[in-house]
Amino acid sequence: MTAGLMKEPQTMSCIYITLFLFTMLLISRQDEFCCRQEFLLKNKNRTDKDEIELCENLTRLLLENVLPAHVAALFVGENKKNEDLYYKSYDCVCVMFASVPDFKEFYTECDINKEGLECLRLLNEIIADFDELLSKPKFSGVEKIKTIGSTYMAAAGLSGTPGQETNQDRERQPAQIGIMVEFAIALMGKLDGINRHSFNSFRLRVGINHGPVIAGVIGARKPQYDIWGNTVNVASRMESTGELGRIQVTEETSDVLQKLGYSCECRGLINVKGKGELKTFFVCTDSNKQQGMGLS
Questions:
Q1: For 112, phi and psi rounded to 5 degrees?
Q2: What is the sign, positive or negative, of the torsion defined by CA atoms of 271, 275, 281, 286?
Q3: What is the pLDDT of residue 291?
Q4: Dist CA 99 CA 227 (whole Å)
Q5: Per the residue annotation, which of 172, 205, 237, 267 is the catalytic one?
Q6: Is 98 helix (H, G, I), strand (E, B) or coil?
Q7: Which residue is catalytic, options 36, 46, 104, 273?
Q8: How far apart are CA 66 and CA 146, in angstroms?
Q9: Is position 36 annotated as part of the catalytic site?
Q10: CA distance linking residue 248 with residue 87, whole number of Å
Q11: Taking the chain (296 residues) in consecutive chunks of 10 residues, what is each chunk's mean pLDDT?
């Protein structure tokens, strides 16, 4: 009877159709499962990629707070090893030291100012206002190096690629010196504003010099960007031997500034530690000063 049943075409057709539909159902469910798995995998990959990009962006932002942008990009890259020494030599960099010498006498630790906390709060306000100037397009070429107590150190001319300067870059080098002078004048203006609302009489003492430097990053866990060279040492001496409320520069820097349209007053020969006697100049910064031609 079973053999007879298997020979009936209608019965066999129903069985084949049922098997076919069941097979197609299995295949469709398998395809649906595979598509779902593929979708979840792509979604996970996309999420992982977004998280990686977010982490890289956050790392880059954090690094750019302590390193110049073009240096921070190297440390975010995959080919950079923490133990590699990063350094570059520059032919012409303008270096500035600006200090508030009176702050050392102002700082005291007593109950009135919460053991010096209020003094540090004011110093933080001063440095923060100085940092705010760096966000202005006019001072985009100025790079803050570090603060040493109440001394603010900055440099201009570090953004280019050393050894690959174009004629336009070389023409801009003198202008960087003028920009640094303008930055120093802006710092003095900021400090005057702080004096008005804090009832203090702080004055800035500034020293500027230009020339070749070596820039590099020291450390792996807490990298610090710094510059070294005779140019830096002389700029520091220009500040320490200067006068309150004035910008002291070397003779070479004065020559460049005068070509840019600034007025400089000869101070004469001063004894500079490790350098002997140097002829220095004060930059005229009154309200009627001429604007540097290189800044237009």
A1: -65, -45
A2: negative
A3: 42
A4: 18
A5: 237
A6: strand
A7: 273
A8: 9
A9: no
A10: 29
A11: 59 80 82 84 82 77 74 66 75 95 71 64 91 93 92 89 57 87 95 89 94 89 88 95 95 94 93 88 69 41
Partners of 89 in beta bridges: 214
Indicate if 60 belongs to the active site.
Answer: no
Residue 110: left if φ>0, alpha if ψ -120 to 50, beta else—which one?
beta
What angle in degrees, to the nearest 10, is found between the helix axes of 167-198 and 117-133?
140
Determine the pLDDT at residue 69.
Answer: 77
What are the structure tokens assigned to 125, written together? 């306000």
Dist CA 238 CA 207 (whole Å)? 4
Report the pLDDT value the prediction gives residue 25, as an integer from 0 to 100: 82
Q: pLDDT value at position 172?
A: 73
Phi first, then psi: give them for residue 94, nearest 5 degrees.
-95, 125
Q: How far apart are CA 90 and CA 164, in angstroms?
A: 10
**Per-residue pLDDT at 294:** 40
Strand-pair category, 247-250 with 276-283: antiparallel
Structure tokens that stand for 249 in this block: 């520069």
Q: Outline where 134-223 has alpha helix (H).
A: 167-198
Residues in CB range of 208: below 8 A, 6 or more apart: 94, 95, 96, 97, 177, 180, 181, 184, 235, 238, 247, 248, 249, 253, 283
